[in-house]
Amino acid sequence: MKEQTKKGLLFQSEDFQIVMHEDSDPEKFLKSVFIEEKSSFTLLCMLSQDIHLEIQNRKTHFLFKRNQYILHYSPEETQTELWTENQEILKYIRIQISYQYIFNLINPESSNESAEIFEKMIKNYFIFLHQETPPHLTVEMHLILREILSYSKKGMLQKLFVEAKIIKLLILIFEQFNEKNISEKTPKIAFIIKKFVDENYHKNIKVEEIGKLIGINQNKIRKEFKSQYHITVTDYISELRMLKAKKLIIDKEIMIKEIAFECGYEYVQNFTRAFRKKFGLSPEKLRNG
After folding, report:
1. Using the 8-state DSSP alphabet, how is residue 57 labeled?
2. How buried is 94 (Cβ within 10 angstroms: 0-12 exposed, 13-18 middle, 19+ buried)?
3. Could you tell me if 61 and 53 are in contact, meaning their C-beta atoms sit under 8 angstroms apart?
4. N or C: which end of the chain has fewer CB within 10 A?
5. Helix (H) or strand (E) holding 119
6. Options 2.30.30.40, 2.40.50.140, 2.60.120.810, 3.40.50.300; which CATH number does 8-179 get?
7. With the CA atoms of 254, 257, 263 and 264 taken in that order, what torsion angle do they form, in degrees rounded to the nearest 10?
């Protein structure tokens, strides 16, 4: 989508609102704020690099690469902020769809399949692709967005055109999320957890928070991880932290409390206790020989 023909509010009706946002300034911190209406679905398509998203009511934060998207359900009116750091452009498309339209479209009472899709939408299943990262826009999705941006007719024809394109986008999203067999996902759960822990063990994280962040039930996290790696998630986090602490402890210019913080411990005494349990002596004694 190199060329940009329209910007701002592109379409609005009782069921839909489509906004094209593009802001550029190489010397300014770029930020965009909008309100997700109560009981609404929002499809956000990120068209520039490293866009941060924060949902105020839920204290939820995501970081998106270019051409990633999320389909998000908001049960209540929510303020959402998007911003970039050290970037020259903030560019995205926002498509908001009413709850009632989605309900009527899918008709969850008509079949088990429809009920399952609707439940997944309500529970925000369509945020992470296979519980890993935000999904990427496909070429076909890009073409649909381009068609919406370039459509020039107004009135009933525009309404029918937009509705048809949004339905097509939803179909592509559902297909993208269901492209792998359920049996293929299960073995990946432990790997996903390990990858997340490997990248975040230095932060003050707990199993409960991991579950919320990657969208997997905490009991399933404990079970799948222990089954695959024969160690609990908590013990694995501790192992990684202690390995890092042992490497840092030899540098006498780094204070013990700084090492504790770097290894994900909020309190020095907790770090010292874990260190002594692992190595049999305090950080100070190991440092001083």
Report:
1. G
2. buried
3. yes
4. C
5. helix 112-122
6. 2.60.120.810
7. -150
**Among all chains, which residue has been given the structure tokens 């009991």?**
219
- The pLDDT of residue 86: 66
pLDDT of residue 26: 63
How is residue 203 annotated by DSSP?
S
- β-pair partners for 82: 32, 53
Residue 139: what are its φ and ψ, rounded to 5°? -60, -40
Are 106 and 118 in contact by the 8 Å Cβ rule? The answer is yes
Q: 116 and 177 in contact (C-beta within 8 Å)?
A: no
Three-state DSSP class for 193? Answer: helix
235-288: CATH class: mainly alpha
Tokens 């919406």, residue?
Answer: 148
Largest CA distance in the chain: 80
pTM to 2 decimal places = 0.59
Residue 21 neighbours by CB under 8 Å, 6+ apart: 7, 8, 32, 82, 90, 91, 92, 93, 94
166: helix, strand or coil: helix
Give 238-276 pLDDT, tens digit per residue. 999 998 898 888 888 889 999 999 898 888 999 999 999
| Beta strand 31-36 pairing with 78-83 | antiparallel
Tokens of 277: 């349990």
For the record, the structure tokens of 7 come out as 């910007």
Say if CB 22 and CB 50 are below 8 A apart.
no
Tokens linked to 270: 């907790």
